[in-house]
Amino acid sequence: MFLGHYGLAFGAKKVAPRVSLLTLFVAVEFVDILWPFLLLLDVEKVKIHPGFTEVTHFEFLHYPYTHSLMMGIVWGLVCGGVYWLFQKDVRSAVVVGLAVLSHWFLDVVVHVPDLPLTIFGDQKVGMGLWNSLPATILVESAIFIAGVWIYVKNTRAIPAKGKWGLVALVAFFVVAELFNMFGPPPEDSIPALLASFVVLQAILLSLAHITDRNRAPVGER
User: Fold this and answer.
1) Which pLDDT score, from 0 to 100, does residue 221 have?
2) Most confident of 91-95, 118-122, 193-197
3) How many domains does the chain have?
4) Average pLDDT along the chain
5) Whose CA is closest to 117, among 63, 156, 78, 168?
6) Where exactly are the transmembrane stretches of this chain (predicted)?
7) pLDDT in tens, 36-76
8) 9, 55, 131, 203: most buried by Cβ count inside 10 Å?
9) Residue 91 structural domain
């Protein structure tokens, strides 16, 4: 899942207005940000398999340290704890931790049965939505649109930059999703895969920072 994770991050601003959109983006994608680095270290494994599902060319062979339910809970506690350590805001820290954990629960909807429950054993789950391109687009788009709508309803642009930053951010998501759904298979090279992930995250996080710093919660002066 791609758009769905970020849709949840947008929507989370309603319950945690003090948490920056950049932080929420990092939280919902934390394990995906960590994942290519573990691939590079040969700790986890993936295979580029064109046509593996209708949506993704990735065949996830081994990734329990980033994508198991057990480690989702651990990473959620770690990230929430770090946020609390710096901000001393329990509510926001809980939201950050749950945002990290949410990654597994959204992924389980789209993945084929390859998501581990723990770092031990071989039990894996997945509902396989990625086997249907139209259903994947429908579900992801619905979550993303709902999240952006909640964000727009609960924040206001301060200068015009807050408005156009959001437009640019949403437009970039649309382009990235179209490329993700209909573009060619990625290069079968872990360094190239890591580089593409770094570039994608750098653009998204930069746009999120610019957008959110130029918007304020509704009702706040």
Assistant:
1) 55
2) 91-95
3) 1
4) 94
5) 63
6) 21-41, 61-86, 93-112, 132-152, 164-183, 189-211
7) 999 999 999 999 888 889 999 899 999 999 999 999 999 99
8) 9
9) 3-217
Tens digits of residue pLDDT in 132-189: 999 999 999 999 999 999 999 999 999 888 999 999 999 999 999 998 888 888 877 8
Classify the phi-psi angles of 173: left when phi > 0, otherwise alpha if psi is within -120 to 50, otherwise beta.
Answer: alpha
Give dist(CA 117, CA 126) in Å, integer. Answer: 10
Exposure on the CB side of residue 118, measured as CA atoms within 13 A: 4
The 8 Å CB, 24+ separation contacts for 79-87 are 79/27, 79/30, 83/19, 83/23, 87/18
Question: Per the structure block, which two tokens stand in for 184?
Answer: 């060619």
Nearest C-alpha neighbor of 130 from the set 119, 114, 117, 118: 114
HEC-encoded secondary structure of the chain: CCHHHHHHHHHHCCCCCCCCHHHHHHHHCHHHHHHHHHHHCCCCEEEECCCCCCCCCEEEEECHHHHCHHHHHHHHHHHHHHHHHHHCCHHHHHHHHHHHHHHHHHHHHHCCCCEECCCCCCCEECCCHHHCHHHHHHHHHHHHHHHHHHHHHHEEECCHHHHHHHHHHHHHHHHHHHHHHHCCCCCCCHHHHHHHHHHHHHHHHHHHHHHHHCEEECCCC
> What predicted TM-score, i.e. pTM, was given to this entire model?
0.94
pLDDT tens digits, residue range 1-28?
889 999 999 999 999 999 999 999 999 9
Compute CA distances 83 → 70, 76, 189, 192, whole Å. 20, 11, 34, 31
